Model the fold of this input.
Amino acid sequence: MVSVSDRKLPFFVYGTLRPGEANHGLFLRGRTRSEEPGRLVGAVLYDGPGYPYAVWGRGGVVHGEVVTALPEAYGELLAALDRLEEYVPGDPRNLYERVECEVTLGGEGRAVRAWVYVAAPSVAARLRARGTPIGSGDWLVRG
Done:
C-alpha cells in the first residue's frame, strides 16, 4: 500500500459502484474501458449506512470489480469518485482514504495495482471495535 500519487491506475470498486448497484450507472457508465471481477486480499468488508467499508485485516478478502477508465475520462472520473467518497487528500475528517493496492483479477489470478477507497483510520478503528463484518466479503451477497 502506498499513498496517493498522480498515477493513472484502474479502480477497485466493491460496493455501490459495482454493476447493478445504484452508483454504477451514475458514475461509471460511458467512462470505462473494462470492468473485470477482482479481489482485495488482506481486508475485511464491513456493513455501513447504505454502503460498505473495506478495512485492513488479516485473513479477509473483499470481492469487487477492477474498473479501467477510458483515457479521456480518467481525470473526470477520478474527481467524481473522490467527491462521491468525500475524499480530500490529507483531510482528517475523511471517511475513506484512496490508496494504491495490489488487487487480484478474478479470472486470471493476475495481480494489478489499483486505487481502492478503504476506511480512514478513525472509521476503521470504530468498525473493528463494534462494526458488522460481511462474512462473504461480497457486498452483493451480504444477505
Summary: The first helix runs from residue 22 to 28. The two ends are 30 Å apart (CA to CA).
